[in-house]
Amino acid sequence: MAVTIWWEDMQPGTVRELGTTTVTKEEIQEFAAKYDPQPFHLDEEAGRRSMFGALAASGWQTCGLAMRLTVDNLLRHTDSKGSPGLESLKWLKPVYPGDVLSLRHTIVESRPLRKRADTGMVRARWEMFNQHGDKVMEMEGYGFFGRREPATAEELARIDAQRAGA
């Protein structure tokens, strides 16, 4: 697929809605059986007895759903070069069978890379909401993206000067 979103298009304040996904009981139980086999993720009765009051999805599954929406609705349109990781991750409310989750992606910071003139880095916030508008997850992290045009010598000199003054 052709690149239509470059690092230069990811300026601070840019907000993208990255679609929706519906969580099923079967998906919750399948994920839990394989990756997070805690009783409240596997069994409806155990979920009712838990602090969640019902079968609840693993937070790690919620992260995976967010990643899928991000790839399908953003990264496949970019020259994504990976990520050095997350700054923060919070599971704020449980996710239940039947929940319809939507994902919002906001660019918080964007900067060129000194050692890779063809790449820029962004810090972004992902917010996942259920169908009631409740925020169920928030994470913040970094991504590397290809630039439309490599950094010029003048831009790299400005980066060096900013770092020297910091």
TrEMBL record:
Superkingdom of the organism of origin: Bacteria
Classification via CDD domains: YdeM
SUPFAM superfamilies: Thioesterase/thiol ester dehydrase-isomerase
InterPro entries assigned to the protein according to its UniProt record, in alphabetical order: HotDog_dom_sf, MaoC-like_dom, MCH/BMMD
Domain (MaoC-like): residue spans on this chain: 13-116
PANTHER family listed in its UniProt record: BETA-METHYLMALYL-COA DEHYDRATASE, MONOAMINE OXIDASE-RELATED
Descriptive protein name: MaoC family dehydratase
